[in-house]
Amino acid sequence: MKESSAFRSGFVAVIGRPNVGKSTLVNSIIGQKIAIMSDKPQTTRNKIMCVLTAEDYQMLFVDTPGIHKPKHKLGEFMVKAAESTLKEVDAVLFVVDATEKLGAGEHYIIEHLKEIKTPVFLVVNKIDLISKTALLPIISSYQTQYPFQAIVPVSAKDKINLDKLLGEIQKFLPVGPKYFPDDMITDQPERLIIAELIREKALHLTREEIPHAIAVDIEEIASRPNDQIYVRAVIYVERDSQKGIIIGTGGKLLKQIGQQARLDVENLLGSKCYLDLWVKVKKDWRNRDSILRSLGYE
């Protein structure tokens, strides 16, 4: 029997293929935008921990990059970051897209899950996009592949069934300490979150090969008079042609990126912000170890 008086805490990995809604799920659970979201695959590049503190528990969600077949060193880093998390946590949420059939990508992840002893919960996301009659066959197809501790259909976007999911996770949390203060919602420094918010807007506003060639580095954050925060950021791309696309005709696209990102940054910082954006070329940065390290991909 679980002791109601005992405080429980644990680390929960959120894994799945790219673009199944992992970051949306974490943001909805936390109640604030920390992990960036995009309809482009492989949006999340690093492990991001978000903290949910309740009266009798603290859950530490680790949002991971989507597990996929890597095509460059950055991709290799992303997959290793996701796979290494499985052995470091108390529970695993395997998030799948209700609108997609169980395929090779899901089978690949399930094979990795068979190598661990951690409780695994299947989270069938995007149920707002399917009929109720379509849900049962989806669940059945996964039940035959792996002995999940629980299967919870959710809509991360519409926040459907999230309380049920949290209740299932709570059953498996070990008795433990409060790792972080009540008001802390992420272990990520503001600098990294701001860089990611800018990258998110660039992802939304660009097409084809451009999104995956983008990295953002924050060079300066400083206080200015009238409670304004000055942020200077550099958007890195791999080729001169990409630089031209990001800037846009007469600087139009870069201005759009800045305007949209500034709103999220101001919400994060709770202060007015002057966002100073620059675009620079770092040739083939996704395959260069020194540049990957400088951008935080250790």
Q: Numbering strands along the chain, what is their spatial order in the largest sheet?
A: 2-3-1-4-5-6
Q: Average pLDDT value?
A: 84
Q: Quick one: overall form?
A: globular
The CATH class assignment of the largest domain is: Alpha Beta
Low-confidence stretches: 36-45
From the structure above, extract its key features.
298 residues; Rossmann fold; GMP Synthetase, Chain A, domain 3; 2 domains; 3-stranded mixed sheet
Describe the structure.
Residues 36-45 have low confidence and may be disordered. It contains 9 helices and 9 strands. With 298 residues, the protein is α/β, with parallel strands linked by helices. A hairpin with a 3-residue loop joins strand 7 and strand 8. It has a 6-stranded mixed beta sheet with strand order 2-3-1-4-5-6, with helices on both faces. Strands 7-8-9 form a 3-stranded mixed beta sheet. It folds into 2 domains: 8-170, 3-Layer(aba) Sandwich (Rossmann fold), CATH 3.40.50.300; 190-294, 2-Layer Sandwich (GMP Synthetase, Chain A, domain 3).
